[in-house]
Amino acid sequence: MRRLNRKKTLSLVKELDAFPKVPESYVETSASGGTVSLIAFTTMALLTIMEFSVYQDTWMKYEYEVDKDFSSKLRINIDITVAMKCQYVGADVLDLAETMVASADGLVYEPAIFDLSPQQKEWQRMLQLIQSRLQEEHSLQDVIFKSAFKSASTALPPREDDSSQPPDACRIHGHLYVNKVAGNFHITVGKAIPHPRGHAHLAALVNHDSYNFSHRIDHLSFGELVPGIINPLDGTEKIAVDHNQMFQYFITVVPTKLHTYKISADTHQFSVTERERVINHAAGSHGVSGIFMKYDLSSLMVTVTEEHMPFWQFFVRLCGIVGGIFSTTGMLHGIGKFIVEIIYCRFRLGSYKPVSSVPFEDGHTDNHLPLLENNTH
């Protein structure tokens, strides 16, 4: 009884077989089928290699949401060299809340030489080339995000020559913590002093002829300092054409959370618009000589996440490639074979000529084929 039930079960399973096997004696091979099979296998191999390279690659996913964090402090990372001596310039921040952050809280004034050494000039040239490529090809920013903490440092390398030239510039570098509101970071003549209505700079003690706000921005970023990230103003150099010249940078800061397979950081991206003009009160161009960076924070926060294709999706795509090529090549081969057979048959039918008619004495013709003679006796 059990054997009978087992045989019924096996026969039922065999009837459900969706892949019936054809005996090899009934399989006919051809040269055209072999050629199509070779093309199909080659195509499958190439597409499999390409699909595997896509599976190994990663991409950056951008998500946007409202920034709800307004209580924390914003860090500003600064490395700027001004072509004036350190005792003549002062840097500080004044925000919309009329809160002044003095440079003594985190900035260092270091005497330096404004002209770069040959190695430093090469570094600056490469950085400016990268900046120009980033403006043309925005997808390169994803490559920079993925290479963060792995690429070489973007800081200005130290001088390789022992120059005996006296320092003629001031390098202001370090970081400041400010409120997350719009503000103005500026470098101008004289040290900053508190004032009931804001703040002031002791500019009266500095000779007007010594004003020179030619500057080089080696680094400027907001938020957590992430090595390998190139910011829009890194490598910027401006040369003043007049003693009374104002350089303005209008910056929009976008909070950014970066999550890759190597790092997770809370940093900030920013866009910038530049403007410069000569201060001439007689011509109606009013203002104060110096370098002014007016920043404002965006209300949106960007989350950048590095993503990777899951294995199940790669497997499904691979099965689709193999099955699709098998089905498509088989169908194309069948259609091609059918068309060739039709053309060949028409060619063979056209090669037969009609049998010539046999004339009779009375003028009639006989179109019938002659009967075969019966050789049987």
C-alpha end-to-end distance: 70 Å
What is the domain total for the residues?
Answer: 2
Rg over CA atoms, rounded to whole Å, is 41 Å
Secondary structure tally, helices:
5
Summary tags:
5-stranded antiparallel β-sheet, elongated, alpha+beta, disordered C terminus, 377 residues, 8-stranded mixed β-sheet
Set down the secondary structure blueprint:
Blueprint: H1 2-15, H2 31-56, E1 58-66, E2 73-82, E3 89-95, E4 100-102, E5 107-112, H3 118-136, H4 140-146, E6 169-179, E7 183-189, E8 192-195, E9 198-201, E10 215-222, E11 236-238, E12 245-259, E13 264-278, E14 290-297, E15 300-308, H5 311-351, E16 358-359, E17 365-366
Parallel strand pairs: 12-14, 12-15
Antiparallel strand pairs: 1-15, 2-6, 2-10, 3-4, 3-7, 5-6, 7-14, 8-9, 10-11, 12-13, 16-17
